[in-house]
């Protein structure tokens, strides 16, 4: 499954990397209150940077929108079906006519627009930042097209197959598949909130720190914003956001280890170096889709490091004043009395994934695809396994 995902996502890596860097830069200038005694952001003080902040969103939004389109196009290519139908399907999931997914939580149920068919109403909700609904719809479209090709005569296939593959898929995406994705997100949000407010919060922190990165892969991590806001209103702070920032750092540190192990691979460094920077600024998708999921073992190493750092954070009572930028700048959202212990958490999130990635590679743990020379300090080492170097 991971190999198939990697093949689908690989052509999208340039867009993911550039989009991640742009969003990370916007986080720094627009969300970190570093000026006027920590009360204002760069954007709030300087009109020029306010203009830059707004202009960059044009590019960031384009990457965010086109990502779903290209994702479904690549999925159709992988399945041997029509790419343009996948792109059209993607447009129907993020169309401007739909209520943006980010606005759903703040919109009253009665105010959500619907398609009214008389006997039924279908909410007009977009699925921005959602991967699961898009992937489910993409596979449904592919299998419908493959099935129709077998039974529809070639003479009318050009007309019949696209129509009867696309229309039912779009309908299912908004009636069944999309709501399933949302429901999964709601369940995750409820579990996270309950876990963080229970007597076993340290144990939950270990699980959340370990599993947050896979949530990012699915797009369901955006559901945690609602939990953060609830925690902030109830406890005057959130202990969830610090763990999210630590997970960002851990994924970047695993990529940093890959840069060390594969030093000299200039083609890969075009992805890995920007991806590391993006992670440390709080955007992990370039690192995960571009490097860590490709090799798998750095992804797991980062999950373990994130889990350990999360346990230390929650057990020490670390709280953030607000949510905003993640990664290394995330420390600026931490309450000042927790700066020292959170710095230790950051060091854990840097060192543990780096070391584990090197160890996993050296002993071929969770590694089936990385056959590059193993780089150690000052030399290269080759290991043989199953007849391959």
Automatic annotation (TrEMBL):
Transmembrane intervals: 5-25, 45-63, 84-105, 125-144, 156-180, 200-220, 240-261, 299-319, 339-360
Domain PTS EIIC type-1: 3-376
Location in the cell: Cell membrane
Keywords tagged on the record: Cell membrane, Membrane, Phosphotransferase system, Sugar transport, Transmembrane, Transmembrane helix, Transport
Topology of the protein relative to the lipid bilayer: Multi-pass membrane protein
Domain of life: Bacteria
Primary residence: membrane
Pfam families the record matches: PTS_EIIC (PF02378)
The keyword Acetylation appears for this protein: no
Protein name: PTS system trehalose(Maltose)-specific transporter subunits IIBC
Species this protein is from: Listeria floridensis FSL S10-1187
